[in-house]
Amino acid sequence: MSETDLAVDATGTAPADPLVLAASWLPTPASGVTPTMTLSTIGLDGYPSARTVLLSRFDGQRVHFHTDTRSRKAAELSAVPRATVTVLLPESARQLVVTGDVTPVTDEEARVAFAARTRYLQVLAWLNDHELAAEPPERRRERWAAFERDRVDAIEPPATWVGYALTPVRMLFWQGDVDGPSNRLAYHRTDDGWALERWPG
Questions:
Q1: The whole model's pTM is what?
Q2: Sign of the alpha-carbon dihedral angle for 109, 90, 47, 83
Q3: Which of 13, 72, 87, 177 is the most exposed place for a label (fewest CB within 10 A)?
């Protein structure tokens, strides 16, 4: 792997628009691939708060993810609608870190994302709340099985299902290299577009 792998052409020239580079790194919505990523928010106590979520999709401009309206991250995003997501792509020795402003998506966008989830994740969206978490494992499995028996058809999203989209203000692309030093491209949004710096890995 070389520095040209980080760029979009063979000259080693990085694109002026990091969204173009992100689109070449991340799976397309049509692929059905939803990588995991670390979502970092500002906790209600002022400390950083992080957890692993699914990257629902990258639409060319924004990073989408979904959660429950009763979750800690939903409360944190309501208080401070800013976040960082870190997408690790180990098969290509890459990491993408995106920081920006977060807004809720439309109800229709959230429904489309729910329909694209696996059956397991759809059931999880209905059942995985604080009440169920307090139950012993056997009881949790019983309630899961009962839900599955009662919902044999397609599952609609629960009222607590919500989606968010992160609009980047900073983007950091890290590329590993087994034959040389790793490399990072650090972009930040300006009034005129994007500014780029090259950082050591």
A1: 0.89
A2: negative
A3: 13
- CATH of span 3-117+163-200: 2.30.110.10
Instruction: Give the pLDDT mean for 88-98.
Output: 95
Instruction: Find out whether 42 and 48 touch, Cβ atoms under 8 Å.
Output: yes
Q: How far is residue 76 from each of residues 43, 48, 80, 163, measured CA to CA in Å?
A: 6, 10, 6, 14
Q: Note the pLDDT tens digit of each residue in 115-174.
A: 999 999 999 999 988 888 999 999 999 999 999 999 888 899 999 999 999 999 999 999
Is 188 in contact with 181 (CB distance < 8 Å)?
Answer: no
